[in-house]
Request: fold
Amino acid sequence: MAEPVTDANTGLGPPALDHNDGLVRICQGDSTSLTFLQDASVNLIVTSPPYNLDMAYGDYRDDKPYTAYLKWVERWAEELYRVADVGGRACINIPLDTNKGGKQAIYADYIASFRNAGWSYHTTIVWNEQNISRRTAWGSWMSPTAPFVTAPVEMIPVFYKEKWPRKKEHRTPTISRDEFLEWTLGIWTFAGERPSRFGHPAPFPEELPRRLIRLYSFREDLVLDPFVGSGTTCAVAKANGRHSIGVDIDPGYCKLAIERCMGVYPHGPTQWFESSDRLWLTGAGPNQMSLPWNVALPVNPVADVTVKPAD
Ligand SMILES: C[S@@+](CC[C@H](N)C(=O)[O-])C[C@H]1O[C@@H](n2cnc3c(N)ncnc32)[C@H](O)[C@@H]1O
Reply:
């Protein structure tokens, strides 16, 4: 019998790197093919995909021709639709438009791609990021010849699978009255995140997944970020008592996400090393963890993660 294919980038077989601490699961994998996730298993997707702006991500080339980029978006939107439960929601943080290779109405194109993939459109939240550094490209100064208008906002279109209302049943909402009143007004104002804070080129701020998770999910729900990067969504989901899964194609970002979700980044120092079938993470934890620790991550097949005090 042929050996199962296990390379994460093929999308076949189990993920190459798979860490599960009971609340957070971080997997190295390709989100166009999440074969390690079951159909209809996810309640809320919160993510920020690559924007095709030639960003220097580790393993991923962020510079596709625009039409190829949109085809790629449709592929992972279809895969997210498969893993979403009925009533599942998808909140996708994207720009309003992009300028690379000519002006593109990327937000409008995402709505079309997601609809093609089966999703229904619900609403859009405008994130007023107030990034004034973008106010340098005026085009023609004080002349109608070719002025540029730039909106310092990002968009969060919200989609759902088949039906919008969900039954509460035995599930627990965790949003407060004041949060609900403030966040159901669809212009959200808070600052972006510094890339230097977590060692990833394009993190979003914790406030973004925090609001989306508390507004759109129950505590018993499963949250997925298919482009988890430095692990922001999963760290916030954990802080809010939700189970979550984070997927990234880059093993370095997966390790970063694991460290962050375990609460050891940026407390370090930490070190990763490999044995024949395991990845080991060692280091001293943050102050409230009294013991140094070792963590063994199964490389394949998936098994329990061992956390034990160092000798
Ligand atoms: C905009 S970043 C996400 C940042 C994240 N929100 C955070 O706060 O750190 C996009 C991520 O998508 C990852 N990526 C690119 N292609 C992917 C794919 N096919 N499957 C999974 N992850 C992918 C990149 O490695 C990158 O870390």
Summary: Helices lie at 66-83, 106-116, 177-183, 195-198, 207-216, 232-239, 251-261.
